[in-house]
Each structure stands twice: as C-alpha cells, then as structure tokens.
Design goal:
Layout (H helix, E strand, L loop, with lengths): L4 H10 L4 E6 L6 H13 L4 E4 L9 H11 L4 E3 L13 E7 L5 H17 L3 E9 L7 H6 L9 H13 L4 E5 L10 H8 L6 E4 L5 H10 L3 E4 L1 H5 L3 H10 L4 E2 L2 E2 L6
Parallel strand pairs: 1-2, 1-8, 2-3, 3-4, 4-5, 5-6, 6-7, 7-8
Antiparallel strand pairs: 9-10
The protein binds SN-glycerol-1-phosphate.
The site of SN-glycerol-1-phosphate has 14 residues, from strand 8 and helix 9.
C-alpha cells in the first residue's frame, strides 16, 4: 500500500518533474479495454490512476480497484464525484472541496458526513481545492454539482480562488474543465494560477493530444489528468505520458523520481 503519495508529488514539484495520471471512470469503462490501458500505462510509466466519475451508476468501483491492483502497482487515487464513491481498496483520496462553486454541500457538507469513515480508513487523504473552469459546454460535473464554472477568460477569478484555497490550507489545486470538455483550460489561466500559488497544480478536462499536455506542463501544471481520450484510444497513453514527462530531469535515461517498474 502506498502511504505517502503527497510527499512524492511535492518532491517531484520541487525538482520540476511532472506527473501524469489516467482517469478511469468505472461507468464509462468497457472492461475489455482495461487490460490494454493497464499494460500501456505500465509500459509508459504512468504515475497514477485517478478513479471516479461524477455519476457512478453501477457497482464497479471495488471491482475496478481490485482488478487494477491485481495487474499492476501504479497507485490508485480516488477522485470521487460524491460521498458514496469511497473504498479502502484504493491508496489515496482526493478530498475535494469545490472552491469554484458556492454549494455548501460540496464545500464542507459532504466532508462532515464522510469524515468518520475517512478517519478510520487506510486511505491517504489529500485535501484538494477543486476548481471547475468553463470548458465550452455544460458538463456532467457542473450539472451534478449545481455550480457555475469559472469563466475561461477570467484569470483573475481563478487566481484569487486558488490563492484562497492555498491560504485555507488545502494541499493541492485541481483545475478541471470537466470530463469530455470541448475546450481545455487555457494556458494563460494555468500560468496565472501557477505564478500565484506554491502548492501542486493538477490540470485536466478535454486534453486529447500530447501537444496540449506538453503546453499545459510548460504553462506550469505539475500533473496532467486524461480520461476520455484514452478510453477512446488506449494507444495514446504512451505519447501523452512521454509528453508530460518530457521536461523531467532524467538520470541515466530514467526519470529520477520515477524508476521504471
Ligand atoms: C475530468 O480532468 C478529468 O475530471 C479528465 O477529463 O476525461 O476530458 O480527459 P477528460
């Protein structure tokens, strides 16, 4: 069981090394594709799996977590769309507070309900300020959360929101255009936020190409998350992972903080 993923993320950030995570939504996943995605992820040194979705309608969560664990040792981080998406079978949990919204339930309400379970669980808890950014069309997460995303041309709102999250003591900021977003987060917003916070910055939503992933890390993202594009085409894993890791310092050809598995 991995118990110190946050330290790993912080150390990588301090060394200027970027991380790549694949989002696996147990609802969307056709299980036939899981084996291919896992093999490609191991071959390409993917750093993490994020597991979750806005609307898990089946009971696949535990099955997916166990299935992945049997086949590979890439850490699994829960990215829950609601308080039912919890499982001790994962390594860690993004304890998300939806700081771009004004829905009290998602700022603190659900957290109160889940705190007793989390206190007893073996999960590493990573408190994360979650910021929805307008990705060009209404996404499941904006509808389900009953919140408005931050307009994509309002860098100042994004910066102030992320700064507030850091000042509140949150450990990471996750800016998300929403799964399947038509338009990913603009690089100008990523760099504006990067220049004003010190905690790790995760970027996701609508990233479909290695070029976009690279542009995002060049703009200051510490971690890139891709889901849909990989579900549609698992062969993209290698190029995306390579692009995200391409700026990392290497030792003897290998990422210093990411030994080949
Ligand atoms: C969504 O950031 C993730 O929360 C990934 O989005 O599925 O569009 O890659 P995509």
């Amino acid at each position: 069981m991995n118990t110190n993923l946050y330290s790993q993320i912080q150390e990588a950030k301090a060394k200027g090394q970027n991380k790549f995570a694949i989002l696996i939504d147990p609802d969307q996943l056709r299980l036939g594709k899981l084996d291919t995605i896992l093999q490609n992820a191991m071959d390409a040194n993917v750093d993490y799996f994020f597991i979750g979705g806005s609307l898990i309608v089946n009971d696949m969560l535990d099955k997916v977590l166990v299935g992945i664990r049997e086949l590979c040792n890439i850490p699994q981080i829960l990215f829950p769309g609601n308080s039912f998406q919890l499982s001790n079978k994962a390594d860690a949990l993004l304890f998300l507070s939806l700081i771009s919204g004004r829905n009290a339930e998602l700022l603190i309400g659900k957290h109160v309900i889940t705190a007793p379970f989390l206190r007893k669980s073996s999960l590493e808890i990573m408190s994360t300020g979650y910021m929805l950014i307008d990705g060009g069309a209404a996404t499941t997460v904006s509808y389900m959360s009953n919140t408005n995303p931050i307009p994509r041309d309002k860098n100042d709102i994004a910066v102030c929101t992320a700064m507030a999250g850091e000042l509140l003591g949150l450990k990471m900021i996750y800016m998300d255009a929403g799964s399947g977003a038509q338009t990913p987060i603009p690089e100008s917003m990523i760099s504006a936020v990067r220049n004003n916070i010190n905690i790790p910055l995760i970027i996701g939503g609508g990233i479909k190409t290695p070029e976009k992933a690279l542009a995002n890390v060049q703009a200051g993202a510490d971690m890139i998350v891709v889901g849909n594009a990989i579900e549609n085409d698992p062969t993209l894993v290698a190029e995306l992972s390579h692009a995200v890791h391409s700026m990392n310092t290497t030792v003897n050809g290998f990422d210093e903080t990411h030994p080949k598995r």
